[in-house]
Amino acid sequence: MDTSTGLTALAQAAFWITVGFTATGAVIAVFPRNILHNVLGLALALAGVAGLYLCLGSFFIAMMQLLIYVGAICIAIVFAIMLSRPLHLETPQRGVPKVAMALTASAVFFVAITSVTLRTEWTPPIGRGTDYSIETLGHMLLTRYELVFELISLVLLVAIIGAVVTAGFSRRSSS
Amino acid sequence: MNNLNTYLIISAFLFSLGLLGVLQRRNLIGMLISIELMLNAANLNFMAFNRFLSPEPFVGQIIALFIMGLAAAEAAIGLSIILALFRKLHSINIERAQKLKG
User: Fold this and answer.
1) Per-residue pLDDT averaged across A24-35, rounded?
2) Cβ contacts (< 8 Å) between A94 and chain B: which residues?
3) φ/ψ of residue B27, rounded to 5
4) How far apart are CA A136 and CA A129, in angstroms?
5) Does the beta-carbon distance from B16 to A109 stay under 8 Å?
6) Pick from B85, B20, B30, B69: nearest CA to A37
7) What is the DSSP letter of A33?
8) Number of neighbouring beta carbons within 10 Å of residue A124
9) pLDDT digits over A55-67, tens only?
10) pLDDT of A146 strictly over 60
11) Confidence of residue A2 (pLDDT cuts 50, 70, 90)
12) In chain B, which residue's Cα lies nearest the Cα of A119?
């Protein structure tokens, strides 16, 4: 009994530490002026979200989050920063009224979504499956939901070709 | 701690920070970073609903994988557009890109 309550307290502490990492990373990703600090904050927030996926019980999605977001997207953003030289130079800040309007808009959005969330009665359906294993996920991804798999490979192919064409064409036309 | 509302509020917080970043930043790469935050908030919502409300526990995970692939494609296209724009304008200030303005 004593050890189980201790384990529960430990799990709660880990959960709230993960939430703290996520919130800190998100704040760092938005507010500082230095763009490299933003990218590092984004990586921290994404790793925190991967920890939240672990808390939600799906190991596979957490690993995919680490691989795709932290491993690929953040590195791609860092490469783009390094490729274009004066990106570290500061861009001028927006005027005070625009910043105030942006703050108001996002605060209104947050309050609205939170109040809707807290006032809704969420009722789970009667018969719920409890099979969270990776085997079932892979089986479903290749049988019943195969269209998703094919579609995402097509989208990635088109995106790769589009990125090459866009970046290469601008190089030819500018130099 | 481990109920649906906690996850939904965390994801609403992430989404509003991303919205604030998109509205307030002038740096194009900063806006792209904020868009990634918003996509992650949506993904966290899908996973939370999948864990607590969905009748089949893998549908939300498949949708989350799909969104991750879309986010990777979006980042690749967005970064190449930013590079092309930078070669043309020699700046990544979003307000300099106004050639189509009437």
Assistant:
1) 90
2) 24, 26
3) -80, 125
4) 11
5) yes
6) B30
7) S
8) 11
9) 888 889 999 999 9
10) yes
11) low
12) B5
Of A39, A92, A158, the CB nearest to B33: A39
Chain B contact probe: residue of A90, A166, A169, A172 with most B CBs at under 10 A = A166
Q: Do B44 and A106 touch (CB under 8 A)?
A: no
Share of chain A above pLDDT 90, in %: 46
Q: Does B51 touch chain A (CB under 8 A)?
A: yes
User: pLDDT tens for residues A30-78?
Assistant: 988 888 889 999 999 999 999 999 988 888 999 999 999 898 899 988 8
Judged by DSSP in three states, A57 sits in coil
Q: Do B57 and A167 touch (CB under 8 A)?
A: no
| Planar angle of CA A124, A117, A123, nearest 5 degrees | 15
Kindly give the residue spans of alpha helices, DSSP state H, lying in B1-102: 4-24, 28-52, 59-89
Closest listed residue to residue A49, CA positions, set A21, A16, A78: A21
Residue in B20, B70, B95 to test binding to A, most A beta-carbons within 10 Å: B20
pLDDT of residue A137: 87
Residue pLDDT, tens place only, B82-93: 888 888 877 777
- Please name the member of B5, B83, B90 whose beta carbon is closest to the beta carbon of A167: B83
Residue A41 burial (CB < 10 Å; 0-12/13-18/19+)? Answer: buried
Cβ separation of A163 and B76 shorter than 8 Å?
yes
